[in-house]
Amino acid sequence: MDRMNDDRMKDEPLSPALGAALQALDAQAERRAAEVNVERVAARVLERLRSGEVERRRVLWMSPPALRAAAAVVVLVAAGVVMNLADHSRPPASLPLPASIPAMDSLSARQLEAVLDATAQLKAEADTEPLAPSGASLDDLTEDQLQTLLASLGGAEG
Amino acid sequence: MGVPLPAVAADGDLIARYLAGEEQAATELVRRHATALARYIASQGAPDDELEDVTQETFFKAFRALGSFRGGASFRTWLLAIGGNVLRDRRRQWRRNLVVELTPEIRDPSGDPGEHADADWAAERLQEGIGKLARLQREVFLMRAQQGLGYEEISSGLGITEGAARVHYHHAVKRLKAWIG
């Protein structure tokens, strides 16, 4: 208290006009403050604190933002891995060529053209429906596809 | 039901009780400090229809942050400092919403009308001047001149040095003197 009185002695003194204005302002503020319903303030504060507590517990239980972000990354990575695996299980769109066609070098231009037509058909099918897993060979072709291929090869030779 | 509160429990005891889960302690703290807080906020120019809401928001924030209250300043000073921050945030909202009526029109029907008109004019003029001060000047001035707090207490509450609090007060008084005339 003495310390405060010392402080007051050293303070920049208020002029009479400023002192009177401060007194008037304080009286006004006091009247306005008296209008505040203290019990209502207390009740509302407690109400908000209670609901805030429930919210906080729920948020903690659900996950803080960082944990949610981490979970989202895990889900995205997992989805990527699954998609990647699914993609690898399909014949690559650019490589549907049966691996066991022998002596490609010896084919004539027409034969090659026929092979390309047949593979284009395979590719078109691969793009629209799932095909047998990778390692595609002639064994994977349907009867119609084989016939088309053989016919074109035969026609090209004959 | 908790243990009945003693007639005059210290703020520190009430804070400890509240943190231990006793809601009644929070109610008691609100009863004890709400009017002083509202008076401080009103002096800074909070509109009438916002005064209770700002008071409530200040207590809400204070109770939520009570775990971080270290007791460097008294609970009331800490509360006033939070009130100043809440008011500053609200002012930004009010400005955005173009609510500009910061000076209340309060008339006391008793006494000499001329005298009251002068007092009201002086109060309004001072409030306008206070509104023109920098935030720390305004808060230090009101904590010191209106709430009667010491510099040590003010500096702890506002998180500034005692020397800075003195300087802010000095400049605030000089500017307000010039403003009031």
- End-to-end gap of chain B: 57 Å
Q: Label the overall shape of chain A.
A: rod-shaped
How far apart the termini of chain A lie comes to: 119 Å
Q: What is the helix tally of chain B?
A: 8
Largest sheet of chain B: none
Fold-level CATH name of the largest domain in chain B: Rna Polymerase Sigma Factor, Chain: A
User: Mean pLDDT of chain B, rounded to whole units?
Assistant: 87
- Helix count of chain A equals 6
What does the main sheet of chain A amount to? none
pLDDT under 50 segments of chain B (min length 5)? 99-107
The geometry of chain B reads as globular
Instruction: Return the structural class of chain B.
Output: mainly alpha
User: Which range does the strand content of chain B fall in?
Assistant: under 5%
Tell me about this structure.
The complex is a heterodimer of chains A (158) and B (181). Chain A has 158 residues and is mainly alpha-helical. Chain A has 2 domains: 17-62, no CATH class; 92-157, no CATH class. Chain A is 71% helix and 0% strand. Chain A is built from 6 helices and no strands. In chain A, helix 5 packs antiparallel against helix 6 (143-157). Chain A is rod-shaped and about 120 Å long. Chain B is mainly α and 181 residues long. Chain B is 71% helix and 0% strand. Chain B is globular, with a radius of gyration of 18 Å. The A-B interface holds A 3-4, 7, 10-15, 17-18, 20-22, 24-42, 44-46, 48-49, 52 and B 23, 26-27, 30-31, 34-36, 38-40, 42-43, 48, 51-52, 55-56, 59-60, 63-64, 104, 106, 108, 119-120, 122-123, 125-127, 130, 144-146, 148, 150-152, 166, 169-170, 173-174, 176-177, 180-181.
